[in-house]
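Hello support,

Our group uses your service weekly, and this is the first time we've seen a run hang past the timeout. The protein is AMP-binding protein. I'm not sure whether the cause is the sequence or the server load. Input pasted verbatim:
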Amino acid sequence: MTTVAAPLDALAREAPGAPALTVGGTTLARRDLAATLKRLEGAVAARTAPGETVALVLPNGFALALLFLACARTGRVAAVLDREWTHHERDGVLAALAPRLVIAEEGNADILMPSGVGPEAVVAALAPDGEGAPCPPRPQDAFYIGFTSGTTGLPKGYRRSHASWVASFEAGAREFAIGPQDHVLAPGAFTHSLFLYALVDGLQRGAHVTALERFRPRAAVERLAAGDVSVLYGVPTQLRLVLEAARGRRFPSVRLILSSGAKWPADLGAEVARIFPGARHAEFYGASELSFVALARSGEPVPEGSVGRPFPEVAVTIRGPDGASLPPGRVGRIHVESPFLFDGYAVGGGEGALHRHGKALSVGDHGWLDEAGWLFLAGREGRMLVTSGVNVYAEEVERVLESHPGVAAAVALGEPDRLRGTRLVAVVRPGDEAHPPAASALRAHCRDRLAEAKRPRRFLMARRWPLTRSGKTDAATLADMLARSDPALEPLP
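Update from on-call engineer: The timeout came from a worker crash unrelated to the input. Re-ran successfully.
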């Protein structure tokens, strides 16, 4: 395999009737998937030239999945925009991208695609008067522009090549052996690269992939209850909600749980083992620009707080402000060298957001390696708080708060303080809203685990816990709520 989705035709010839992709109760067999993609590739080729960008502003469903694959296979670049963005964000990104073709559910678009349509309707909406000749891509060609939140302004659009994703697919295959024997459940939005990766990797490995049109914990549980799902992807917040919705049911068919996007909470281990008794868990640490960086697997002696060892084919170094390599135990910028790195930004971000040292790249995450090569995160430059002249990583405070048994999630924020410059404020989501932890209990918990300057001065509870579309805690919204003194933030007793 040299380009993304290239194996699908051969898989269709090997087992034409094998299930390939299920969305919303409709399943495409391998032969139908290949035939549908061939028609879509001709339609895309008739409207665009090789290398041109096709903007997809679509909900999860067949339309987004099939058009993404068709663009990849015919040498075009699929930009996957989030339909939940504001008009300002969408218009700004489209103006910056200047795509040749815009396919959206609503608004200004070259092609309007209603939500929930099946494969035939997707082809019909795109069918031109004639068909163009698809142009097979080269490994070095870009095929995908994904987006991640920018600290200011527009979302950052990162560009990925076929070669980078194919390299990550091959490394993942050696680690997890996903294949025709598997049924993969990808319950999250394709605007999150984890679930787009799950879709493409599963399909080209010959697995049956099921996607949800919208993440709903009960829908995920219903799918798991059918008893044939063997691989489950998710971010920790989603997986926690699935565990809660399971209500004690067990799903022994699941052999592998793959998570990314945030640190795996230690308190979920026992519940996961009970509900998924046959599963091993693997947690990725990475970034949109870097792809896989580190891997922590259940059953390994992962030190407390570590995000794992460097992923196969990944070299991690820790460097100081002068670029010098730091010894084990010293905190510095995490630099990554691997065949999985991105090609650069298509929108926003700018190279100033990155730090380069030779072929190694850093996105501003700070951490350290121990003597055995385990990687630990301190935090990200953009979330560093300075209080009383001390640099405090918000993530360090959050990890301590989330280790308290009464806290399901936490965010550390700063507010102006005349004495300290910035006062630390903890906002938590209790595990049980009816019985939230007392502020005094959290103070005592932090006192034993954090230096005095790193301890929050105020403790609030959020009645409404905002999430990003990818299922992560929306720290920016919570910061805005704090600045506005939103009544949904209440002092803990």
